[in-house]
Specification:
Length: about 375
């Protein structure tokens, strides 16, 4: 990423001496679980617990290399040695077959609420592609009903708010995308808040799915698109100009087009950034090279998200920790990240305002505690 410049004012220099930097990182670490967080880019099918994969597979006689969760971890999670997007996605072949019925989807949606709540997430938007999980005996609409049942019960039991995004899929027939948009529009009163375009952006452009995104705009369904993750920023421009995107998934390569980056910053187009995932898929080589820190300090509406926490072996706390340590973020900067999440959510305005209040209160409480205990 060397040689690329972010538009706008230069980032504030981090002049703190090394010892105070590490002291701040250590005290922030302890606070991270309690800070109110928002996750807007979270794949339901990439967020499964390893033990649940083993149990669902055993019940359904789905063949796995092992049913021991400790050993299964090596097949369904990637670590620092992951070399590519392909290697990352290869893990999905093990657990996708267990998501083939309503009971399994309802369970993983329910467990996601518990996991998010434990990580201090107050609101999340989960997403998945009905076209990938449906089959002859499990219609796309049935997958949506099952996921919504799990989220409704989990949200109630674990006190976490949520929205559901339905993904169109780049490699799937365009007709499946218009069908997905209709499903999203029909289920808006039950918690579906938007649509997405997922899949390999280097091999499949968004163009064949244009009708679906035009339909979404006509029906008032907000869109976010995976763009500028592993492909040049032209995909981000198309997402904004052609596919009516209100948010961008990733946008890691945005700095390659300074004019476009300035537009994204000035119009406060939210970027759903996922550092851990980008590092594991080698979209970004080193954490310090990730544009998240530069974007945050240049005033972009950036958010931090877990992407596929089950595959990455993380929670949103780990994602925040990585960003905080890499860029020596202050509590005030983390508050900005959380508030950006409330601003960018596809939830109704009243919900977004309530989330912003909870974030302000939560951070104020934590800040008051740190002054009292002199930990920062
Ligand atoms: Zn994603």
């Amino acid at each position: 990423m060397a040689g690329r410049t972010a538009p706008g004012p230069a980032p504030a220099p981090t002049a703190a001496p090394a010892r105070s930097r590490s002291a701040r990182a250590a005290s922030l670490d302890a606070l991270l679980p309690a800070l109110p967080k928002i996750d807007l880019h979270l794949h339901l099918d990439g967020a499964l617990r390893v033990a649940t994969i083993a149990e669902l597979a055993r019940e359904r006689r789905v063949p796995l290399p092992t049913y021991d969760p400790q050993r299964l971890r090596h097949y369904v999670q990637v670590g620092p040695r992951c070399r590519s997007v392909a290697e990352f996605l290869a893990t999905f072949r093990y657990f996708y077959p267990v998501l083939a019925d309503a009971a399994a989807l309802e369970r993983v949606a329910y467990e996601l609420c518990e996991d998010q709540s434990r990580a201090g997430v107050i609101y999340f938007e989960a997403r998945y592609a009905p076209v990938l999980l449906a089959h002859a005996r499990f219609r796309p609409a049935e997958t949506v009903r099952a996921v919504l049942r799990g989220l409704e019960a989990g949200g109630r039991d674990f006190g976490v708010a949520w929205g559901l995004i339905l993904c169109c899929y780049r490699g799937a027939p365009p007709a499946s995308s218009t069908a997905t948009v209709r499903l999203a529009a029909a289920a808006r009163d039950r918690g579906v808040v938007g649509i997405d375009l997922a899949g390999d952006e280097r091999r499949h452009s968004a163009a064949p799915h244009q009708r679906a995104f035009d339909l979404a705009r006509r029906l008032g369904v907000p869109a976010t698109l995976h763009a500028g993750e592993s492909a040049p920023p032209a995909g981000v421009r198309d997402a904004l100009d052609l596919q009516h995107a209100r948010r961008i998934g990733h946008g890691v390569h945005l700095e390659e087009d300074p004019d476009l980056a300035a537009r994204v910053r000035d119009r406060r187009v939210p970027l759903e950034m996922c550092m851990t995932s980008n590092l594991q898929t080698r979209v970004v080589r080193r954490a310090a090279d990730h544009p998240f820190g530069r974007f945050l300090r240049a005033g972009f509406c950036v958010t931090l998200n877990a992407d596929d926490p089950g595959v990455s072996g993380i929670t949103l706390i780990d994602e925040w920790r990585r960003a905080a340590r890499t860029f020596d973020l202050s509590l005030a900067e983390l508050r900005t990240v959380a508030l950006n999440g409330a601003e960018a959510a596809f939830a109704p305005a009243a919900v977004r305002r309530a989330l912003a209040r909870r974030i302000a209160d939560g951070f104020a409480r934590v800040a008051a505690g740190t002054k009292k205990g002199k930990t920062v």
